[in-house]
């Protein structure tokens, strides 16, 4: 037995003797007779992206039962998927869990919460284990320090590991992952279907704009509007025809935003009320995000709301990047930090902290070539992750077809 296998064996012995927790084992949904995919996401952004991948899978194979765990489970309520809790990392609990669920495929995203006993039990039940979004970072498990590290042997349980970068792939090979089990696939990001657009409305509005420079405040919160309006007023001094489009986070935010625009004495047209846009209009306002796909297509530059004020976690930046929009955002994006970080590294997004920094960014980026370069970089990031999603979905479908033939 290799040293790596011995480390996992020692850990499983430890997990078999672990004291049972006081709480009851997690409740699992009834397992149907069809194929089952289990998907675990560690961080909120990973859970969001993983749930989006599973939605794409269900679109192709609606007969699959998808059960989400970890941070991904929070997205089950809005989908045809089910959310559930993982068992405690105790050998008997993991074996009971795996025997009850019997998943055909396990998608695992997360390096700080590697679960050797659970993953071993799932593999023993015949599940195909796939790790996604493997980064150049340590792999951690609940093993006590006096045990040999079971992470390398646990990684050997996976049939495929998709690494984000060549360096992450080299690190995995040093940990003993076989080259034929390793893929360099890029990061896992939310690549949901791009927001739709009524082409007739878009063409009508594009004609009314008449080539005016435009920027968008998307999914704006009322607490952010004063900074947005101050920045717009400053930017207009340098670009006199600049138009601001405001799309509130939802209809509940719209009245307070409209009152703030009125208080600033900026000429405003309400698109949803059918008001006319002319050369003197400074702000064009929608009452909700229903037509956000059109606004992204019209505006080369967008500030994404819920990010200047704390408590909202920002909004998924891939929504804008996938439609070719350069991105500005505030510092409070903890709910989607990985996505913003990757866009910043690619040169597709820029952080602003207040009205002054937002005004400076607007002045620099209203030049078409500047915003276009950012937008192209963002589109590259979004489409690269789309290729990974397509690859994983195809591999899952092929594996399920193979199992049906056996």
TrEMBL record:
Q: Which domain of life is it from?
A: Bacteria
Keywords on record? Cell membrane, Lipopolysaccharide biosynthesis, Membrane, Transferase
Reply yes or no: does the keyword Cell membrane apply. Answer: yes
Which pathway does the protein contribute to? Bacterial outer membrane biogenesis; LPS core biosynthesis
Q: Name one GO molecular function term.
A: transferase activity
InterPro entries in the record, alphabetically?
Glycos_transf_N, Kdotransferase
Q: What is its EC number?
A: 2.4.99.12
Taking the first listed entry, what is the main subcellular location of this protein, grouped into a coarse class? membrane
**Is Flavoprotein found in the keyword set?**
no
In terms of Gene3D superfamilies, this protein maps to:
Glycogen Phosphorylase B
Query: What catalytic reaction does the record list?
Result: lipid IVA (E. coli) + CMP-3-deoxy-beta-D-manno-octulosonate = alpha-Kdo-(2->6)-lipid IVA (E. coli) + CMP + H(+)
Q: Which residues form a coiled coil?
A: none
Could you tell me which residue ranges the 3-deoxy-D-manno-octulosonic-acid transferase N-terminal domain spans?
49-187
Q: Name one Pfam family in it.
A: Glycos_transf_N
Function in brief: Involved in lipopolysaccharide (LPS) biosynthesis. Catalyzes the transfer of 3-deoxy-D-manno-octulosonate (Kdo) residue(s) from CMP-Kdo to lipid IV(A), the tetraacyldisaccharide-1,4'-bisphosphate precursor of lipid A.
Q: Which family does it belong to?
A: Belongs to the glycosyltransferase group 1 family.
Q: What is this protein called?
A: 3-deoxy-D-manno-octulosonic acid transferase
User: From what organism does this protein derive?
Assistant: Thalassococcus lentus
Starting at the broadest rank, the lineage of the source organism is: Bacteria, Pseudomonadati, Pseudomonadota, Alphaproteobacteria, Rhodobacterales
